[in-house]
Amino acid sequence: MGAPVARLGLAALTLLLFAAPALGATLEMSEPVVMRAAAVAQTPQGFIGSTATITITSAANGSGHVFLDTFPLTEVDMQGSARLAARVATQTSGKDLHAHDFFFVVRSGAQQIGGPSAGAAMTVGAIAAMNGWNVRDDVLMTGTVNPDGTVGPVGGIAEKAAAAAQVGIVRFLFPSGQELAPLGEDRIVDIPTYCRDELSIECIAVADVIDAVGLMTDHVIERPPLTGNVTGEDYLAQLAPLGAALVADAQAILAEAERAHAAAPESAAKSALGERLESARETLARAERAAANETYYTAASLSFQSSIEMRYVREASGYLSAQDAAAAHAASMADARSIVRRAQSTIDAERVRDTNSFEAVGAAQSRLMEAEARLALGESLLVEAASPRALFDALYNASYAAERAETAEWWLLLSEGFPRGEPVDAAALEETARDIITTSTEEIAYVEAVFRGAGATGVLTRSRELLDDADAAMERGFYAAAMLHALEASVRASVALEIAGFGGSVPASKFDVAQQNAARAIQGARARGVESLLAQSAYEFGLSLEDPAEQLTFLGVARVTGNLAGLPGLFSEARAPESRFQGIAPTARVDVVFLAVAFAVGIALGVGTGLAAMMPGKTEAQREAEERAPAQEGPAWDLPAAPSVDQEEGTMREP
């Protein structure tokens, strides 16, 4: 017994020695915040509402780790919600994510915990934990959280409200824009009215976590007041000369198009081109009026639209007039190709340097990708024996590509007039882009499910296209463009849901709120030292539109880009590594990598030593018998060579 006991003691000592360095400074833990969250559970009778309990604790001397303990099991999207909740909570509170740790303990009666619908509630709880606030036990919330702090759409709102009423909740919060929601398979209810008349509770739509904090904690996070002009002097100073230059360029193209069109022989094609030329003149006149009114981005956008048409008229008219039509067509395509390649060489070499260049570089990247796609489409039409229609379509796409490539370069010029902002870490930029794409994908999937339930399909085609563009941008390393595509995709999906909820007739108050939220986001970015070009451009352009969906979309884009611009810790420094530990963390501050290695080595040594200690030793007679025994050949196994990494199937690799 002596030897086995000694060996086990040695193994235990080894484990303790490896783990000892991890026992460092004690974490400064907050008081736990206990709150209930809304959920839905699937039963044989369908989905029914239920509730979950979430306990949230924060450590003010942490290192940016997020720990999650759930019972029963959790899905991956729940883990993503916890990480995003921690990030948004620190941003909203003006604190550094990398100086805090968060611990989320979730308990539910459902068979499996999943879905991002508790994200907004978890964010509120994290804010309360950091600030030492209590969360009211008679208030319950459902809603995803977006990276800019807004509350995103979820399903099962009516069922969740009913479950809240059954457990004594008197105030139920749900995402703004989802006032109309399905109840069962054949009923649509107005949630505030349904709650008041049938559940006897108060149901309130909330737009963002700041609204939710006030209603759930009775503490107010002050919003910056709206003061002065929304579009700043720096923005106007940069846009004025560039907008005027685009108008002048469009005027020059118009003159060239008019001369080329006049010289073309009479034909049905010339008549059709004449109609397009007249429409382009009207668009250019609107651009000139916009420039005179100092709405320079609107002027630039209208100039771009007119320039596409006028370049096409110029190139198509030249094709009609040329003695060697094939050579003229080839020259037009080659000219567009040259312009796109010039933009590629410039933009591919450009990287996001700081928070002030992020938007301009992202806009340039996204426009370059659009130019490349248009050029590729045009060239794909040039097959052998292409029809006259295909040849004209190829010229139009090449004209679009050339103009879009030039606007991509124009966006890069915009960033040069602004001072440098906070440095941007490439790894953090990539991580943030992936988080935003994931969140947008979840939101769009939910909205699609709502429309499918109502028998509507194809409503979110543009959102899906933008998500595809975001994925393509990620593969190319255009992380800023990926974020912008995903954000617009999410906004378009949310707007589609809101307009459907209003029955297609949007009240004027909705536009007022959208305009105020966008303006507040722009001024908030300015207070953080970032002049958000995209936010101000989208705001200005949105106000110039008449279509309700497009106006709300551009105001929404202005809001989300303004809210993100210059947020502390968003992508200005490298992220701490994600924790692989699940559950309630120990009270000591630890080096996670060292602890993992120490425990692995310690356990291996302990198990190995223990097994060796417990195995009976061989007698002297047994050892002598083995030495005298002849060697025996084993079966002739044909062992294949170990597969190379490329031969392994199902292996996930980084591109």
Question: Could you explain how this protein is built, in words?
Answer:
The strands form four sheets. The chain has a four-stranded mixed beta sheet. The protein has a three-stranded parallel beta sheet with strand order 5-8-11, sandwiched between helices. Strands 6-7 form a two-stranded antiparallel sheet. The chain has 20 helices and eleven strands. With 655 residues, it is of the alpha/beta class. The protein folds into three domains: 33-217, Ribosomal Protein S5, domain 2 (2-Layer Sandwich), CATH 3.30.230; 233-416, no CATH class; 426-564, no CATH class. Strand 1 (33-43) and strand 2 (46-59) form a beta hairpin. It has helices spanning 2-19, 76-93, 119-131, 157-166, 191-199, 209-217, 233-263, 268-292, 296-321, 325-348, 358-380, 388-416, 426-453, 461-476, 479-501, 508-527, 533-544, 548-564, 592-614, 620-628, and strands spanning 33-43, 46-59, 66-74, 101-113, 139-141, 144-145, 151-152, 171-175, 180-182, 188-190, 202-206.
Ends distance: 56 Å
Major sheet strand order: 1-2-4-3
Structural category is alpha/beta
Count of domain modules: 3
Averaged pLDDT, please? 80
Outline the fold blueprint.
Elements: H1 2-19, E1 33-43, E2 46-59, E3 66-74, H2 76-93, E4 101-113, H3 119-131, E5 139-141, E6 144-145, E7 151-152, H4 157-166, E8 171-175, E9 180-182, E10 188-190, H5 191-199, E11 202-206, H6 209-217, H7 233-263, H8 268-292, H9 296-321, H10 325-348, H11 358-380, H12 388-416, H13 426-453, H14 461-476, H15 479-501, H16 508-527, H17 533-544, H18 548-564, H19 592-614, H20 620-628
Parallel strand pairs: 3-4, 5-8, 8-11
Antiparallel strand pairs: 1-2, 2-4, 6-7, 9-10
Helix pairs in contact: 1-19, 2-3, 3-6, 4-5, 7-8, 7-9, 8-9, 9-10, 9-12, 10-11, 10-12, 11-12, 11-15, 13-14, 13-15, 14-15, 15-18, 16-17, 16-18, 17-18
